[in-house]
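Entry 12.
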Amino acid sequence: MARLVFLNGQNMGEAVEVKEGMTLGRQADCDLVLDDPKTSRHHARIVQEGGRYVVVDLNSSNGTFLNGVRIQKSALSMGDRLRLGDTEFVFAPDPDDELLGRTVAGFQFLKRLRHGAAGAFYLGRQVALDRNVILYLLDKTLAQDSAAVAHFKEEVRAASMLRHKSVLRVFDVHQAGDFVFSVSEAFDGKPLADELDKPLPARRIIAVVQQIADALAEAHSRGIVHGAISPDVILVDRNGNAKLSGFAGLNQKVPVFCRGIGTLLYISPEEVLGNPLTPASDIYSLGIVLWHGLMGRAPFEASSAPAMARIRCEKPVPPVKAPSPVVAHLVANMCSRDPAERPDARTVADALAETLKRLPQRRKIAKRTVPKPQPKTRKEVTPLPPVPTRKDSPLTIILLPPLFGFGFLIGWLIVKFFL
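Predicted 3D structure (tokens):
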């Protein structure tokens, strides 16, 4: 069971249960009537195909958009954003998911996180050890396929041997009836996909991709191919530490045309053609992730899953606007349609690490501290030291009058007799 949750408008926050064949539009006979003048009378329909919900545009005037891309028909994945006119929804799991709160094989399913191509991710708790874990539950259709289950277990065991700081560590795999799931460490990070609605700072996206390339170099050296690199399986915490999840996802067991456009953006041309995946396939997908992060948009647009798949094989990836010619050349090689022209993961990791050394660091601007004005105070005037006065001796006092009189007499005689 799934829901459409309104993200804007007067119904923001309300949830509507998704039903087979439900019609959305302005007309009163629609299953979900939208009070939006930019939607058509019968705008879109949601149907089920191959056990998945698919949205179909009914030749609307303003189009149906899935994760920002105009589509004609596309499968829906949990967390997808659907826009009709000015009305936007998120495709969300039912909060009454039958697994939530249930304990299976010693693991309690607490919260559904997101949907993958071959199953769903849950936040869980390992009861015996009282610790949080990530549970990847295989789709019920695949869980009933003994060959798919055997392959899933084999891939999980191989992934559990990986020890790398940028790989979400896989602990174990369990099967209980129709429930088949892997157990991984919990990580306090969000999918990179949550940040790709605009171009990211070059240093941030390059640092994230460099960490993932380093993790892939370790996996490829052990003969392990991820096979489903996308922003949804790259988790990034608030400090910029990245971890790669989703190993052993059985993505090739899901037909290409049954996948959503969002997933098809990142798969390699050889996967579209049904050829076996190789380490070069991971490099192509990682190159598209880097392109998307630098540009803030996907390199291709298509109206349906078949159209998107066809573009992957026919059109080259457009040039990317990168912080340096070296990065632009590296992305072009990573996204080459010829697997032989793509660099290996170690080359990518080393090249991006060298690029990070040359990129300018973000400078932290120190806050200027303005001194507080001091209250004006009257300056105290320091009095000048007194001028020392000469003290006359007693002899001077006695002799001064006679000398003065003698001088007067001499002056009178000169005037009297000589002038």
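Annotation: The two ends are 143 Å apart (CA to CA). The chain has a mean pLDDT of 83.
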